[in-house]
Amino acid sequence: MGLRKRAAEEAVESEVIKMVKIEVLDMGAENAKLLIKDSDRAFANALRRTMMSETPKMAIETVRFQMGSFDLCLSCGHLNPAAAARESSGGSGCNQCGKKLEKEGVDYTVWETNGALPDEMVAQRLAMIPIPTDHTMFHYEETCPTCKDLVPEDRGCPTCNMIYTCKAFGTEEGMTVTAGDMIYLGDQSLEIPEHYRSIPITKLYKGQMLEFYATAVMGRGSQHAKWSPVCGVTFVPRQVGILNNKTKAKILWDLNLTINAKDFDKDGRLEDIEKVETLAKELHHVGDGTEIQTEFKDAITIEDVPGEFIFSFETDGSMSPQTALEMASSSLSETFSSLGDDLKAVL
Ligand SMILES: [Zn+2]
Ligand SMILES: [Zn+2]
Prior knowledge:
- The protein is 25% helix and 29% strand.
- It has three domains: 2-55 and 230-339, RNA polymerase, RBP11-like subunit (Gyrase A, domain 2, 2-Layer Sandwich); 58-67 and 113-226, Beta Complex (RNA Polymerase Alpha Subunit, Chain A, domain 2), CATH 2.170.120; 70-109, no CATH class.
- The protein is built from seven helices and 14 strands.
- α2 crosses α7.
- The chain has helices spanning 2-17, 41-53, 119-127, 246-253, 273-282, 293-296, 321-346, and strands spanning 21-27, 31-37, 57-65, 69-73, 79-81, 108-112, 161-169, 175-178, 183-184, 200-204, 209-219, 230-243, 269-270, 300-315.
- The strands form four sheets. A five-stranded antiparallel β-sheet has the order 1-2-14-12-13. Strands 3-11-7-9 form a four-stranded antiparallel β-sheet, with helices on one face.
- With 347 residues, it is of the alpha+beta class.
- One zinc ion (ZN) is lined by residues 73, 75-76, 78, 94, 96-97, 99.
């Protein structure tokens, strides 16, 4: 028992001491490429899986659709319940401005909340729209400082819910309702970003309208893919080019491609990550299936660098790649520290 305990403690300590190094190779608005050093496949994969399934992200979870048919008052834009306010049915005029609703097309137009797509499908599309996620302003409902103690059905407050509204009317020739038609009830910085405003939701024709309140909550990709902020998360071993035979390598240089002898250092190594990628492609000219292969043999080889990986991913636009990486790392370290605590408790 004593021995087992010490071994477990040492294992936990050695994990803490061993620091993984991460270098940024490329960081765009929605994509990132990193070099992970002093690590192993298990770590890179843990980071990959955490990014996909444990990074907190806001996504639309519930949608309340307004249902019914309405008389739109052309004087003030108020939606009156259909027929009730019309002159012909004994109504007293627009509920808001009092204008008499006599002639359709002059005083009012008739709109019905229907469209080609069923509400379920619209809701599914809304869930996939990247909602800008601010981790300093919003929390998971279950850990929300204001409402975590309430029963789940009663939860939902300005620090754990984001509400978007949309009211759209069709046109004769058809109007595409897009993510940009949703209005955020709150700070302007949390409107759907410019780049994603053109995401289509549905298309409406004259007489068709759509009105809804959509609530976004914080969730994890492990619950539903809509809460996964990243896509195409991959890692490959970092590779270097090795010049084994200078004379034979000339066969490749003579093809006048991008990479040549000058790119290799005096020890015959090519370390530049992008150049190695290019070299790997160019080696196909002298590799398997080519006539020249038997002569070229292994004059230049590509080798994996132990413990180093090139990690790349894209985000869906709900947060920057830096944020996704930071949130995933903190989520991962929380998991490990709680695992460490559990181990200490049981051993
Ligand atoms: Zn009116
Ligand atoms: Zn709350």
